[in-house]
Amino acid sequence: MPAACSPNVMEVPPERLYLSIHSELSEDRHKQFLKCLAAREARQPVAQITGHRAFWKHEFRVTRATLDPRPETELLVEVALETAFERVLDLGTGTGCILLSLLAERPAARGVATDISEAALAVAQENAERLSLYERAHFVQGDWFHGVEGRFDLIVSNPPYITEAEMAELAPDVRDWEPHTALTPGGDGLGAYRAIAFGAFARLKPGGRIALEIGPTQAAAVSAMLTAQGFADVEVRQDLGHRDRVVLAHRP
Questions:
Q1: Which domain holds residue 151?
Q2: Do β-strands 110-115 and 137-141 pair in parallel, antiparallel, or remain unpaired?
Q3: Of 21 and 214, more confident
Q4: What percent of the chain has pLDDT over 90?
Q5: From which residue to which does any coiled coil extend (predicted)?
Q6: d(CA 156, CA 79)
Q7: 224 with 125, same domain?
Q8: Is 160 known to sit in a ligand binding site?
Q9: 142 in the same domain as 19
Q10: Is 159 annotated as a binding-site member?
């Protein structure tokens, strides 16, 4: 496995790289550059090589223990911000990018984030500290609602939803480097939604909302799960590519 390397070998801002294109690298920096190049040749994602990814309005620490935040997930944040909330629960938080983006936009809100991975939670906690949001974010290690107390105005999640069959078709950058537990629950890809739909109603205050990122073919199945659990006004939102991306509903 390629060794970790510095995110900025030349130590200049990205917008000034062109001005430094003819600058010579020291021997140490040249070695560092070769490490980065070897990592990318091995199909390691750029965000893991640099150690960060831009999402919404902030930079988030990324490691092999976390899912690399995707631009499509920003729709989940956008939808969640459409109505007011004071207490939010983020299930399967990973880097914490969803919860922390929401808290940054709502200074009076507080949040709880869960993840089954201790290593992922450590990254999320680091991101909370970097963004000065740690006092308003509480992190719980556990599977979905395990260890979560109280009720919430809003529940959000980008759970694993890739089917077991689809895993083999993923690009090596994803399949070989990102944590499989954050990508797929196995089987038909809907296992996480079943668990979330089953437990969410009791964790929401009356009038509270749930917003879930989905795979492009899963809107009907996830909508049916929420309806069966008593949720109302189930709605599907599409991303910029006109693909079904978020299912939202509210507790009557």
A1: 48-250
A2: parallel
A3: 214
A4: 78
A5: none
A6: 10
A7: yes
A8: yes
A9: no
A10: yes
Q: Which tokens sit at 74? A: 């920003």
Is 215 annotated as a binding-site member?
no
More confident residue, 11 or 97: 97
Whether residues 32 and 130 share a domain: the answer is: no
Strand order through the sheet with 244-250: 137-141, 110-115, 87-91, 152-157, 204-213, 244-250, 232-238
Query: Considering the domain boundaries, does residue 70 fall inside one?
Result: yes
Per-residue model confidence as pLDDT tens digits over 166-179: 998 999 999 989 99
Domain membership of residue 59 (yes or no) is yes
- The answer on whether 93 is annotated among ligand-binding residues is yes
Is 56 within any annotated ligand binding site?
A: no
CB 68, CB 62: distance < 8 Å: yes
Does 38 share its domain with 53? no
**Does 115 appear as a known binding residue?**
yes
Name the residue type at position 179: P
Q: Is 1 within a domain?
A: no
Render pLDDT for 48-80 as a digit per residue (tens, 0 to 9).
888 899 999 999 999 999 999 999 999 999 999
Kindly indicate the confidence band of residue 21, based on its pLDDT and cuts at 50, 70 and 90: low
Does the annotation list 111 as a binding residue?
no
CATH number of the domain bearing residue 224: 3.40.50.150
Residue 161 known to bind ligand: yes
User: Would you say residue 160 has pLDDT above 80?
Assistant: yes
36/111 same-domain check: no
**Is 217 labelled a binding residue?**
no
